[in-house]
Amino acid sequence: MNKKLLSCVFSLVALLAVAGPASGSGGEALEHANVNVRDTAAIQRGAQVFVNYCLSCHAASYMRYNRLAEDLELNEELVMENLVFADAKIGDTMTIAMQPKDAEAWLGKAPPDLSLIARSRGTDWLYTYFLTFYQDESGRWNNITFPNASMPHVLWPLQGIQKPVYATHDGHEVIDHLVLAKPGIESPEEYEDTVRDLVTFLKYLSEPSEVKRKNTGVWVLLFLALFALVSYALKAEYWRDVH
Fold it and tell me: Residue 150 has what pLDDT?
């Protein structure tokens, strides 16, 4: 590989590293979610938030309740009692009763399946999205991270109601920041923790085998390192008399 081509490759890699995954936020600064998919307790709490506030409209059709029980270290009876509110069985997927055609008629657009939302949007985007809902002067819900989102703020009883504070930049009136006009049942710090738990669950949902895969990868690397040492010692023994 010539030097010019090698330089182009390194430049492309550096550009991708700086850019990161597409957030879909229109260039807005994102808050850092700092999720940890190894935190089983956080995933458990996030699962409870998900089934209480999201699952009535958004399915997670790639996940089965029995897989959820296994990964979250819960027995199946506990899952059925606390995470299954419909007539689903433990081996069923996390689907919803609302049909896509009915959803389009009632809501204007069928709510997306959230199985892979953390992979498509990113955890920082989701975390910021749940924090930046506000109510405009007409009483309509809107969102800074995803303007004109058709989804209402289903977590408002927890967070409360935020109102926008406007400022003028370059002759245009824009939202400068949000203020909490009506507190929810959680403090701002508690709500951030709740959102982080929810995003942690969505991160887990997007790749349930991530923790096991990374643990397996560590053992594979250790094996390869040990195998390399053995191979080097064997090579040295074979070539000792030659040198």
Answer: 85
